[in-house]
Design goal:
It is built from 16 helices and 24 strands. The chain is α+β, with helices and mostly antiparallel strands and about 650 residues long. The chain has three domains: about 240 residues, D-Maltodextrin-Binding Protein, domain 2; about 120 residues, Dipeptide-binding Protein, Domain 1 (Dipeptide-binding Protein, domain 1); about 240 residues, Dipeptide-binding Protein, domain 3, CATH 3.10.105.
Length: about 650
């Protein structure tokens, strides 16, 4: 393929000069710790009266290699709050916020285009801010502001070929032949501690992501890349060599890896990365840099004013951790937070629409939710599960679920029932009218007949089927942080009861749920995955042997399905052939019923109206925050506060 140059966006004049209208003339404090000022955001303690507080709130799991999750804000108690009670809750919190802001005001506060404080509300705090070793969505949201990829998806979200990708660290690239790709790193790219980003960093990053001692969730997604090495004599050129040709080669080369600083991490033993101090105070090459992490409360970033792709308009980004979804939505409606990426059910969307300071932004959902069956015995993967090890029983339980009714009860028109583990954003499914893929129908008569044929009958008249002295009874593992899944769990419990299955709910903290799910210590689990823009690695990670002990909670394995996946991944006959191959693979999966496919939401975010140029990317909600801005005439008190702990480097 011929060499192709890719244009870089230019720095604005002010960014190129390094100017900062908010900073003032005194340059003596560059890079130095200044006297501490209070954070503008409230601590979790300040809103304790509006909901429970947990310092270690867990994050919803996401598809490995993509680090995304569906954060569920449910209808539960908040939906039934009397508006007057909501106001009573909001008033003292708002007063506390005002006092906090007043304490931060001082001469020389920020003015102009490059000011602003954006507070994101998150349901958990990150485990670590080192990209290769985390699967948490909130960690992704934060470290995606700190670290860059070589290139990223364009607005069309097309993963085939390379023509619609946008440059990040790489200013250009070319194919030497069908299996060899060369990236040229921008000479303007710098690590936030000063050194240039080089091809050595690119090669180091690939080596780390594919190292078994790091055990990166994205490791499997990089399996088709044979090697990444610097080009001899060119410190800014890195050469990627692939094992085979396929449609998404470029996507795999750039999407899964955030380039890491070799000069800071090469000396850290990789089996210790999961506990490395770097992950608590990272140094990156992106538009924002790390300022502070208050465990259980918040993480703060500050804009890098000399960022080579253009200075971010919004000065400060703060993630406030609020593990209780009710409190999170209350904070957003009360104006104490600025953005939430997923509002959840229709009642929450209407509540956000009713807040005059909020704007809502619908976008294509990349998530799906399902009830996953453990095909191995609870806590003993060497033995089959006494109930779910039987394919016919799994199919019967799927037939017994009225998924449309459940979806209407929880989401109304803000979700669809998927025909498999498929989000709305994937091109292989076009929505409700698309019949190319079909999941098992709702048919309780067929479900009952199938169970009876497999020997499950109510022998003692207690309403619960049994076989050989074993009851048709099992537990569903549910995270307490997800009101959506808790509501689904109760509805499923009722529907399974009608066909003679007894269900108990194990509601646990999200971190506990993830530990038990990955260890196989459960019967069934209500899970959500937010996916890549492509099925390529997501289906392999979650529904093949590759994901055992990781994302494939139920240890589902079907050689025929895995062969079909391999054919789809290797397809080179164009988009139509690739989509057809994916559908063939999904039909095999649906027939096996390793889970009950429950919902594929249309996502709706809420952002404060003072923020302009808001664009939300389905696969990475806040990826474009550096292009957002808060016009000077719209700024509120917290927008004029500069960094609390460390002055921005100029």
């Amino acid at each position: 393929m011929a060499s192709r140059e890719v244009r870089r966006q230019r720095l604005s004049r002010s960014a190129a000069r390094g100017g900062d209208p908010a900073r003032g003339a005194d340059h003596r404090h560059r890079g130095r710790v200044r006297c501490p000022y209070h954070h503008a955001e409230l601590s979790a303690r300040a809103v304790a009266g509006a909901g429970s507080r947990s310092d270690g709130g867990g994050a919803t799991p996401m598809a490995p290699g993509r680090v995304r999750s569906l954060h569920d804000v449910g209808r539960s108690g908040l939906d039934h709050l009397d508006p007057r009670r909501l106001i009573r809750l909001a008033v003292p919190v708002s007063a506390a916020l005002t006092l906090a802001l007043a304490g931060c005001e001082r001469p020389g506060t920020c003015r102009g285009e490059y000011c602003g404080t954006l507070i994101f509300v998150a349901f958990s705090q990150p485990d670590i801010l080192l990209p290769p070793v985390t699967q948490q969505a909130v960690a992704r949201d934060i470290h995606d502001q700190i670290f860059l990829k070589l290139a990223d998806l364009g607005p069309a979200m097309n993963t085939l070929g390379d023509r619609e990708f946008e440059p990040q660290l790489a200013e250009r690239w070319e194919w030497q032949d069908s299996l060899t790709l060369v990236f040229h790193v921008s000479p303007r790219a710098r690590w936030q501690d000063g050194p240039a980003v080089t091809a050595r960093d690119v090669a180091f990053t690939f080596d780390a992501y594919t190292d078994s001692s790091v055990d990166a969730p994205a490791r499997e997604a990089l399996r088709a890349i044979r090697s990444v090495t610097p080009v001899a004599g060119d410190s800014l050129a890195a050469i990627f060599r692939f094992r085979r040709r396929y449609a998404e080669m470029f996507f795999d080369a750039v999407y899964h890896m955030r380039i890491l600083p070799a000069h800071l991490l090469a000396g850290v033993p990789r089996d210790q990365w999961v506990r490395a101090p770097f992950g608590r105070a990272p140094v990156g090459d992106g538009p924002y840099r790390f300022v502070a992490w208050k465990p259980g409360e918040s993480v703060e970033l500050v804009a890098e004013s000399t960022f080579f792709l253009g200075r971010p308009h919004i000065r400060r980004l703060i993630w406030r951790f609020t593990p209780d979804p009710q409190t999170a939505l209350t904070q957003l409606v009360a104006g104490e937070a600025d953005a939430l990426e997923f509002l959840g059910p229709a009642a929450n969307v209407e509540r956000a629409r009713g807040a005059p300071q909020l704007a809502v932004y619908p976008y294509r959902g990349t998530a799906y939710g399902y009830l996953g069956f453990n095909l191995t015995a609870n806590g003993d993967p060497a033995r089959p599960h006494p109930i779910f090890g039987d394919r016919d029983v799994r199919r019967a339980l799927s037939l017994a679920v009225d998924r449309e009714r459940l979806k209407e009860s929880v989401f109304h028109d803000l979700a669809l029932v998927p025909p498999g583990p498929v989000p709305q954003a994937w091109p292989l499914w076009q929505g409700k009218g698309d019949t190319a893929l079909r999941a098992l129908p709702y048919d309780t008569a067929q479900a009952a007949a199938l169970l009876a044929r497999r020997g499950w009958r109510d022998s003692d008249g207690d309403g619960i089927r049994d076989r050989g002295g074993v009851k048709l009874a099992f537990h569903i593992l549910v995270p307490t942080t997800s009101a959506v899944r808790r509501q689904y769990a109760r509805l499923l419990q009722e529907q399974f009861r009608t066909i003679g299955a007894q269900v108990e709910l194990d509601e646990v903290e999200n971190a506990v749920m993830q530990q038990r799910a990955t260890a196989g210590k459960f019967d069934a689990v209500l899970a959500t995955w937010a996916t890549d823009p492509t099925p390529t690695s997501n289906l392999a990670d979650t529904w093949t042997r590759t994901g055992f002990g990781k994302a494939n909670y139920g240890r589902y394995s079907n050689p025929a399905f895995e062969r079909a996946l391999a054919r789809a991944t290797a397809a080179t006959g164009g988009p139509a052939a690739t989509l057809a191959a994916w559908r063939d693979a999904l039909r095999l999966l649906d027939d096996d019923a390793p889970g009950v496919w429950l919902f594929a939401p249309m996502s709706v975010a809420a952002v404060h109206r003072r923020v302009a140029d808001v664009r939300i990317r389905p696969d990475s909600w806040w990826a474009l925050v550096r292009t957002w801005r808060i016009p000077p005439n719209q700024q509120i008190a917290r927008d004029r506060i500069t960094t609390n702990s460390v002055e921005e480097r100029r």
